[in-house]
Amino acid sequence: MITIDFHRLDIRPNDRILDIGCGEGRHTIKACQHEGTRCVGGDFGFENLVVTKKKLAFHEALADLGCRCIDLSCMDVTCLPFKNNSFDAVICSEVLEHIPADKIAMSELVRILKPGRILAVSVPRFLPEKLCWLLSDTYGNCDGGHVRIYTEKTLIRDIEAFGVTHFAGHYAHSIHSPFWWLKCLVGPDRTDSKLVNLYHRILVWDLMKKPKLTAFIDDLLNPILGKSLVLYFKKP
């Protein structure tokens, strides 16, 4: 499930790309499919990197990768182990909402980005996320859960404060919002809800098959129900 629009990143051959908070590698794999890139996937959880490595090996066996170099490493977004101006593109998708010291994380994302290049950030959108918090007390209180809800204006202001300029944005994954509302309503930890499990199977089917109908519905509803807010910034 790709949240970031890679066309907006202006990726070129030999570009160095960081996907920080890469999780199980969705954006790292997408970055590695660009010809000649050098990609770094970083995450706080070692288990996530193990899964990412396996997925990359699968795509490599399919000759589906075009990158020159791939590095997977454990790292903390509030203390990134890179020099200033190290990356041509930085991706931070669905991470900041988990980080207590989010301003420090934002400053690090900007610090390692080369001048003239693009930072892409996504977080849960305010209204869909607020409904999840209202429907479930445990949604935001579980281990590794979300510690805040961003408004679009606040997030843009906070990131721009570190010296980048917001130039584009959009919403994504509208068909996922009702799934999370339903999951919060029945209880986030429940695994026996037939309706939730059915919806989950539909989302997995959509992810694997990529039918045009659900893509059309998702695009149509994103301005209203989009689960993720995606923002793009350029460093002067």
Short summary of the structure?
The chain is an alpha/beta fold.
Kindly estimate the percentage of residues that lie in beta strands according to DSSP.
15-25%
Given the helix and strand composition, which structural class is it?
alpha/beta
Mean pLDDT across the residues is 96
Order of helices and strands: EHEHEEHEHHEHHHE
| Full CATH superfamily name of the domain at 6-125 and 143-173 and 227-234 | Vaccinia Virus protein VP39
Polypeptide structure, described:
The structure is a single chain. This protein has 236 residues and is α/β, with parallel strands linked by helices. It has a domain at 6-125 and 143-173 and 227-234: Vaccinia Virus protein VP39 (Rossmann fold), CATH 3.40.50. Helices cover 39% and strands 22% of the residues. The protein has eight helices and seven strands. The chain has helices spanning 26-32, 46-61, 102-111, 126-135, 152-160, 177-186, 194-209, 212-225; strands at 16-20, 38-43, 69-74, 87-93, 113-124, 165-172, 228-234. Strands 3-2-1-4-5-7-6 form a seven-stranded mixed beta sheet, sandwiched between helices. Helix 4 packs parallel to helix 6 and helix 6 packs antiparallel against helix 7 (194-209). The longest helix is centred in the first third of the chain and has 16 residues, at 46-61.
Question: Topology, please?
Answer:
Blueprint (H helix, E strand, L loop, with lengths): L15 E5 L5 H7 L5 E6 L2 H16 L7 E6 L12 E7 L8 H10 L1 E12 L1 H10 L16 H9 L4 E8 L4 H10 L7 H16 L2 H14 L2 E7 L2
Parallel strand pairs: 1-2, 1-4, 2-3, 4-5
Antiparallel strand pairs: 5-7, 6-7
Helix pairs in contact: 4-6, 6-7
